[in-house]
Amino acid sequence: IRIGAAHADLGLIQSQLALTTAWGGGIDLINAVGNSAALAMLCSGRRLSANEALALRLYEAVCPEDEAFNTFSDSFVADYLNKSIHVLRGYKATAAARRRKLHEELDDTARDAFITAWVDDEHWAAAANALKKK
């Protein structure tokens, strides 16, 4: 369950550093929102508002600015907490198994793309430029 705060934005900004994601972030994003939306987000490096992330189903809910996060999240998860632990664990196990299979299929491709980008001069120039802006 992912709950965002209204004031927070979300982004995978690696493309701004001439990099791809590593360690499964891109794979998980593609799985969560589909190829088109994920590629738009990954390739642009644009940050999304909490409501944009909600529209893409990256969050299940967004806590309003005027509500305490812990109060909102407690209320939101109440519908889950009254379910059988076996039901919750069963669905969680199925989702985790799907994620593992997806990573088994795609991790090598994602890792190779990351390595290629990491060692390229374009990445190091972008990184140096980003540090100058600080």
Polypeptide structure, described:
- It contains six helices and four strands.
- It has a single domain, classed as 2-enoyl-CoA Hydratase, Chain A, domain 1 (Alpha-Beta Complex), CATH 3.90.226.10.
- The two termini are 34 Å apart.
- By secondary structure, it is mainly alpha-helical.
- Helix 1 (25-33) packs across helix 5 (85-118).
- It has a two-stranded parallel sheet with strand order 1-4.
- The relative contact order is 0.18.
Task: Supply database-style keywords.
single chain, 134 residues, mainly alpha, 2-enoyl-CoA Hydratase, Chain A, domain 1, two-stranded parallel ribbon, two-stranded antiparallel sheet, 4 strands, 63% helix, flat
SSE order and pairing:
Layout lengths: L2 E3 L3 E2 L14 H9 L1 H10 L3 E2 H6 L5 E3 L5 H13 L3 H34 L2 H12 L2
Parallel strand pairs: 1-4
Antiparallel strand pairs: 2-3
Q: Number of helix segments? A: 6
SS-based structural class? mainly alpha
CATH class: Alpha Beta
- Could you spell the SSE succession in H and E letters? EEHHEHEHHH
Describe the main β-sheet briefly.
Answer: 2 strands, parallel
Tell me the helix content: 55-70%
Distance from N terminus to C terminus (CA atoms, Å) equals: 34 Å
